[in-house]
Amino acid sequence: MDVHEIFADERAVSPVIGVILMVAITVILAAVVGSFVFGIGGQVQPSSPNANFQFDYAANGSNPGNYDVTASHSGGDTIPSAETVRLSAPAGTDNFTGDVSAGSTATVFDVSPDTTVRVIWVSANGEDSAVIAEDSTPT
Fold first, then answer.
1. Model confidence pLDDT, tens digit, residues 68-112
2. Can you tell me the distance from the alpha carbon of 101 to that of 99, in angstroms, rounded to the nearest whole number?
3. What is the mean pLDDT of the chain?
């Protein structure tokens, strides 16, 4: 047999390459589907509650010009007592007590004008938190 004939004969190359490509495509497709399926399951996070809060500002009696800020739950999800909900301002914080539902309130006293106040939710396990309401005191 002539050595030149061996290199010139390409009949077996095409089926071998075809099988290799089919196996490679199958492996890649399996990896993509597997990572999608298992990746979605690992990304499920508890979402913050969908609750509405109303902010009320009253003049602070001992420090004129400052405000006593009250946040009231005015609708939406009831937040169980196992989860923490607090009204936060630079002047301090006040936690809502018990299940937070319509009518529940928290108050922070002596807050300066044009200050951001927030209602912050923290999950029961403490791993997740979110600002669920935000407002600013009058100027």
1. 999 999 999 999 999 999 999 999 999 999 999 999 999 999 999
2. 6
3. 88
Q: Which two tokens stand for residue 6?
A: 């061996």
pLDDT tens per residue, range 55-75: 999 998 888 889 999 999 999
Quote the pLDDT of residue 64.
84
Q: How many C-beta neighbours within 10 Å does residue 79 have?
A: 21
- State pTM to two decimals: 0.66
Q: What is the DSSP string of the chain?
A: --HHHHHH--TTHHHHHHHHHHHHHHHHHHHHHHHHHHHHHHT--PPPP-EEEEEEEEE-SSSTT-EEEEEEEEEEPPBPTTSEEEEEETTEEEE--SSB-TT-EEEEEEEPTT-EEEEEEE-TTSS-EEEEEEEE---
Residues with Cβ within 8 Å of residue 38, at least 6 apart in sequence: none
The torsion region of residue 9 among left (phi > 0), alpha (psi -120 to 50) and beta comes to beta
Q: Are 107 and 68 in contact (CB under 8 A)?
A: yes
